[in-house]
Design a protein that fits this description.
Radius of gyration: 17 Å
Strand content: 35-45%
Strand order of the largest sheet: 1-2-3-4-5-6-7-8-9-10-11-12
CATH class: Mainly Beta
Number of helices: 1
Structural class: alpha+beta
Low-confidence stretches: none
Largest sheet: 12 strands, antiparallel, barrel
Order of helices and strands: EEEEEEEEEEEEH
CATH topology: Porin
Length: 165
């Protein structure tokens, strides 16, 4: 089933809303200081809980605290793998150097393409899988937060170097 969805988020927050046919399909609300989020969909509530630093991963849990999938990150390549307990494996990756286009696919029949501007974008999917759709937004925000932290670290290091010299 082909579908096109719209998403948007606030300028200074990390809370996403996804719309289909002008109706709210689901929301993704991030914790302020952690890379964790709660997704509220028409089919249920899900927790995305990140753990680890050297081998980071995020578990997707349902409301019964059962693991549905695990996201494993490749920081060097800005990629991720989504491993569902059903055995399905999906690859997530950016498609351009501006980090405004990314995809999820299983290299078979399922693919989701995301496009973004500053605080909104489009999602083109050839299936109706809410978990996979919000997972793509979650991973994008995960990497955005890492990039912001690195930029702040560089600025802070530059500032302190100028003070100490």
């Amino acid at each position: 089933m082909e579908q096109t969805l719209n998403w948007r988020k606030g300028l200074f927050d990390s809370n996403y809303q996804v719309f289909g046919n002008a109706l709210l399909k689901f929301s993704l609300n991030f914790s302020s200081l952690k890379n964790s989020a709660i997704a509220t969909t028409q089919q249920g509530i899900y927790l995305l809980k990140s753990e680890g630093y050297s081998n980071p991963e995020t578990k997707i849990l349902n409301n019964k605290n059962e693991v549905l999938a695990i996201i494993r990150y490749d920081w060097v390549g800005f990629k991720a793998k989504i491993l569902f307990t059903s055995g399905e494996v999906f690859d997530w990756s950016f498609q351009n150097s501006w980090l405004s286009r990314w995809t999820i696919n299983n290299h078979k029949a399922k693919q989701i393409i995301y496009n973004s501007s500053t605080n909104s974008g489009l999602i083109h999917a050839n299936m109706d899988d809410e978990i996979l759709i919000f997972t793509g937004l979650f991973i994008r925000e995960y990497y955005s937060r890492i990039l912001y932290a690195l930029v702040l670290l560089v600025i802070l290091m530059s500032f302190t170097r100028n003070i100490l010299v």
